[in-house]
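Example record used in the benchmark description.
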Amino acid sequence: MEKTDAGTAVGVDDPYAHVDRCDHLTDGGKCRFAVEHGERDPEFADARSREEFQCPVAGPPEEEGPTGPWEWADCPHFRCRNRDRACIRCGLEEVRMAHDDARPLLEEHHLSYADASSEGEGDPTHEITVYLCRWCHAKVHGSWARVDDDVNPDPEAVAERESRRAEEQSELGFESAAERFDRE
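Model output (structure tokens):
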């Protein structure tokens, strides 16, 4: 199983198994990194330019799924951050309260980390992140729990989510200013 720099498990054997598409991939199958950030890697940008910025992993846009000659792991600028606001392990959905400092129910979980270079510095590898609820996140890092385990949300997590939903519903109720000021 993949490990963090501290040696704790990240909950997967292959981080790329949890990737749908690169964040830099456009709907037309083009590499947005090469177009917008080509100065960071001119050689890569020039190679993509010669191929009309076509992503070498995605393949032709009319084909379904990644059909190009490369794998996601082959691309030096690959990045995939999950945007779904639900725990990928138990399905718990985020409920955020505006103007509240309460700790979020979901936390970003990295499936890939930096490699150690010869200088001892961590060189960033591909960023692959997903969302886990706080409870699943602790289980994945603190034990042998896996990201792809089929589990139900922790009872404490459900209680926290429901208390936030109840508060959210009470905020949606209409109360005239006259009624609010009469109570004070």
